[in-house]
Amino acid sequence: MVRGYERKWLAFSLAALFAGVRASSIWVAHVNLAPLAWLASLLRPRLRYVVVAHGVEVWTARSMLQRAALRRADRVVAVSAYTARKLELVQGVSAAKIVVIPNMLANELPSAPTGVENPNLILSVSRLDRDDAYKGIDQLLRALALVREAWPEAHCVIVGDGNDRGRLEALTHQLNLGAHVQFAGAVSAAELGALYDKCAVFCLPSHAEGFGIVFLEAMAHARPVVALRRAATPEVVADEVTGVLAADADPQQLCGALLRLLRDPELCRRMGADGRARVKAHYLPNVVEPQWQALLQALA
């Protein structure tokens, strides 16, 4: 692994290339770096390389050089079937080279919560950058304004930070939600875990999730999820089983989904339990790591 070069792209590239030609294989964590691995393989023909595709970065056409590097990789790992299809259709990667290995929780399953501390709390966790407006936090705020007309006790905590936070805070005040929305900023892992346990429902109406680790986190804490039936989200959140998926980010649809859960604690409990079981069955290290080990062996 090459580290410590910050924004010194040329120095990093040369160091990465030098390390690559001496390695037994190269594992590329972002498509931007795939051409370096391809060049290293040209200098050392027996060298094999793998590129990991996380989501939106490969859903639209990349540069000719990056597409060529993707196509010539020995394997391209996609974290979802949705991204795997994009790799094939948009980037022209052979389906035979694509392997789907999902993301996983970094740690084991957290302790099961004993109940819901705040049955009126909606939690959302997201980067709040302008480039990440697709996460739909503005639509969640508009939906919350509608929810409060029928459920006045409802309120929301939004975890995360970024250069779009000011706009979202201004929107909160425009919607008269200032006293009912808390922008918590960045929090520690322990604080985030406590918020998952405290809330009744988790909501992230993103229309372009390549996977959605935060969905796993909420489900691991036995919390139902409200999200969209878009991109890779339905692969993680099972509609009507571990949460409710709206067709789009229309505030009325989100409001309906949120009210349905807030009004039905038993449904929340059942979906939360099913979500936790889904994480245990598919997204823990003991399940996902063997898939990576199998890939390593296949390329040995």
Short description:
This protein has 300 residues and is α/β, with parallel strands linked by helices. The longest helix is centred in the last third of the chain and has 18 residues, at 265-282.
Report on the structure:
The protein has 300 residues and is of the alpha/beta class. It folds into two domains: 9-100, Rossmann fold; 121-282, Glycogen Phosphorylase B (Rossmann fold). The protein contains twelve helices and ten strands. The strands form two sheets. The protein has a six-stranded parallel beta sheet, sandwiched between helices. Strands 1-2-3-4 form a four-stranded parallel beta sheet, with helices on one face. Helix 9 links the parallel strand 9 (225-228) and strand 10 (243-246). Helix 8 crosses helix 11. The longest helix is centred in the last third of the chain and has 18 residues, at 265-282. The protein is elongated, with a radius of gyration of 21 Å. The relative contact order is 0.12.
